[in-house]
Structure to design on (234 residues):
């Protein structure tokens, strides 16, 4: 990874996404940032633009993936690193599977699994041509463990995990690395919404987790043939 590598981050207006974007901006990486909330994304753009060049594209990644990729490529020519961080936890309070609306389940899969793959498909051709690139998919231990109320979200993250593993096998030898990362529990707005509590101050702040995720961007962080799955980074 060099400071010239262009990074696309979804879900970058707050939480872990913004913490990762902040770390990268301070290192001088050009950034393409996306999030649903336009006002929060503007705030992030203003902050990050003090350190680097930033292109901010507001909207639901599951609806505007083509626009995000096209604008990023038009502005910078290449996207060297893709960090699929945007997630949806579904209805809150989080319902048991027996009462989870099928439309809500479809939404979870669309945002948490289909949209990341779609973005990968859009940026991968140029990565292949250049023989280098890194894809980081942010997952969750809910994709592995059975937590009551987390069935829809967890199933969508399990799908993302498997997609990541298959991609890593398919991209072996191309110079493109694929990582799927579970960052562990953090004190974030999404986590507070999920558990219905504001008492999460005992959990790590995303700012303490972001630097450890970025270690994967270094050449020694992993091989290019298999995804790295970190059960808990905190």
């Amino acid at each position: 990874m060099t400071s010239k590598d262009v990074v696309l981050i979804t879900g970058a207006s707050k939480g872990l996404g913004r913490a990762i974007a902040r770390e990268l901006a301070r290192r001088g990486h050009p950034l393409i940032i996306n999030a649903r909330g336009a006002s929060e994304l503007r705030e992030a753009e203003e902050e990050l633009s003090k350190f680097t060049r930033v292109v901010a594209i507001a909207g639901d990644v599951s609806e505007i993936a083509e626009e995000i990729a096209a604008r990023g490529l038009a502005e910078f020519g290449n996207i060297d690193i893709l960090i699929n961080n945007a997630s949806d936890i579904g209805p809150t309070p989080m319902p048991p599977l027996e009462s989870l609306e099928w439309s809500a389940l479809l939404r979870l899969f669309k945002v948490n699994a289909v949209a990341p793959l779609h973005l990968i498909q859009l940026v991968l051709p140029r990565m292949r041509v250049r023989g280098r690139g890194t894809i980081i998919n942010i997952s969750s231990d809910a994709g592995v463990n059975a937590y009551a109320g987390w069935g829809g979200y967890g199933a969508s993250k399990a799908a993302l995990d498997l997609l990541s593993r298959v991609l890593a096998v398919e991209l072996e030898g191309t110079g493109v690395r694929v990582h799927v990362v579970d960052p562990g529990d953090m004190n974030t707005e999404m986590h507070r919404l999920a558990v219905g509590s504001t008492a999460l101050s005992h959990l790590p702040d995303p700012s303490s987790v972001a630097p450890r995720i970025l270690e994967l961007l270094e050449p020694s962080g992993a091989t290019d043939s298999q995804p790295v799955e970190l059960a808990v980074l905190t």
Observations:
- The beta strands are 7-10, 31-35, 54-58, 81-84, 133-138, 176-181, 229-230.
